[in-house]
Recover the amino acids of this structure.
């Protein structure tokens, strides 16, 4: 079974190793430890020694996360509100909301509006003159003879 040492014991071992008044063999016998364990305690003490004098080990002060979490929550609510309101309109209205010059990418804008990027970049083809002539002819026939083409109710 593996032995677990408390911080006070590790500090005592590390300080004894730093004093260098005993050999590693004597320290191993005194504390009943392997030389690797003594070396590890010494490394841990030296790496965290700056923290004793007020400097953190990374050189940075701890960040208060509460305001950041609050801001994230507010933004999540705003995005949810925006999505709900934006989806009340039609696809064409949402497509018009996208601004290609905005710092937010077109891809992200399309995601937020629940539009595909293909729909954003799609440019409809104009109807050919031949098709317009046919459509107008069918419309005239239907207006002149609205009952033609209806199935008989037999």
């Amino acid at each position: 079974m593996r032995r677990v040492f408390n911080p006070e014991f590790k500090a005592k071992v590390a300080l004894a190793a730093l004093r260098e008044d005993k050999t590693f063999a004597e320290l191993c016998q005194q504390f009943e430890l392997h030389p690797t364990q003594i070396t590890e305690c010494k490394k841990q003490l030296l790496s965290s020694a700056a923290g004793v004098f007020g400097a953190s080990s990374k050189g940075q002060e701890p960040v208060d996360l509460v305001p950041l979490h609050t801001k994230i929550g507010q933004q999540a609510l705003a995005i949810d509100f925006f999505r709900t309101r934006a989806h009340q309109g039609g696809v064409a209205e949402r497509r018009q909301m996208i601004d290609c010059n905005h710092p937010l990418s077109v891809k992200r804008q399309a995601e937020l509006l629940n539009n595909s990027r293909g729909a954003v970049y799609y440019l409809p083809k104009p109807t050919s003159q031949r098709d317009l002539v046919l459509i107008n002819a069918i419309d005239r026939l239907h207006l002149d003879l609205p009952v033609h083409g209806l199935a008989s109710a037999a």
